[in-house]
Design brief:
The chain is α/β, with parallel strands linked by helices and 215 residues long. It folds into two domains: 6-17 and 86-213, Rossmann fold, CATH 3.40.50; 19-84. It contains nine helices and eight strands. It has helices at 19-30, 40-46, 51-57, 67-81, 91-100, 113-122, 144-153, 168-177, 191-198, and strands spanning 6-9, 16-17, 86-87, 104-112, 131-135, 161-165, 180-184, 203-205.
């Protein structure tokens, strides 16, 4: 079994359980576009990157509201309510367990970095991460460039590194930056989508505490 010395964590959906909030907000947005309302299951079956394509899939009309306007609405509501979210089960135990093993832990997020840092303080987990790399905007764009920057600036040894996320994009990012990947199927995308994309090339787990068997 391969042993790792470095973990790169995704944030939204992997450590932070915010799916319910995203569903709630997008349903509010959809009222102005069509009669569709998502539940957590249908959301996980359609959510993805880029966000513009995900919006088109659920019938968002950019002629009615521009992507910029929609982003402003979503982020405004998200930031107002995100403190109501909780971490996924076993997050603190897993972070503590990896820290006790001497593993280096980083975070790579598609969220605005300056919005994530206060949340890490709120949940008292910021000290687990040697560095947090995120975007400087709210467009939830690709993390590839930031991932490359994280690896280079922190002299991360790729051969001993695994990226842990919850979406197909996390898998794609890991491949682009040259590290292993493990996906947790309790976040923003369904397990069947993750399996279909990865073709069983990587481990896809149901819960975070299963990581202790493989990391």
């Amino acid at each position: 079994m391969k042993k790792y010395d470095t973990i790169i964590w995704d944030w939204n959906g992997t450590l932070l359980n915010d799916v319910w909030l995203c569903v709630e907000i997008v349903n509010t947005i959809l009222v102005n576009h069509n009669d569709l309302q998502l539940d957590a299951t249908t959301y996980r079956d359609v959510f993805g990157f880029p966000i513009t394509e995900y919006y088109r899939k659920i019938g968002i009309d950019f002629q009615k509201e521009s992507f910029e306007v929609l982003t402003h609405k979503f982020i405004g509501s998200y930031e107002s309510h995100v403190v109501k979210c909780e971490l996924h089960n076993d997050v603190t135990n897993v972070l503590n367990g990896f820290a006790d093993k001497g593993l280096h832990q980083f975070m790579l997020t598609a969220a605005h970095k300056e919005g994530v840092l206060p949340l890490l303080d709120h949940f008292s987990i910021r000290d687990f991460f040697k560095h947090v790399e995120g975007l400087d905007n709210h467009r939830a764009e690709s993390k590839v460039e930031r991932g490359i920057k994280l690896v280079e600036n922190n002299e991360v040894r790729k051969e001993g590194t695994v990226l842990i996320g919850d979406t197909i994009h996390d898998y794609d990012v890991a491949r682009e930056i040259g590290v292993d990947c493990i996906l947790i199927a309790n976040g923003h995308q369904s397990k069947k989508r993750l399996i279909k994309k990865t073709k069983n090339e990587i481990m896809i787990l149901d819960e975070l505490d299963q990581l202790f068997e493989f990391v």
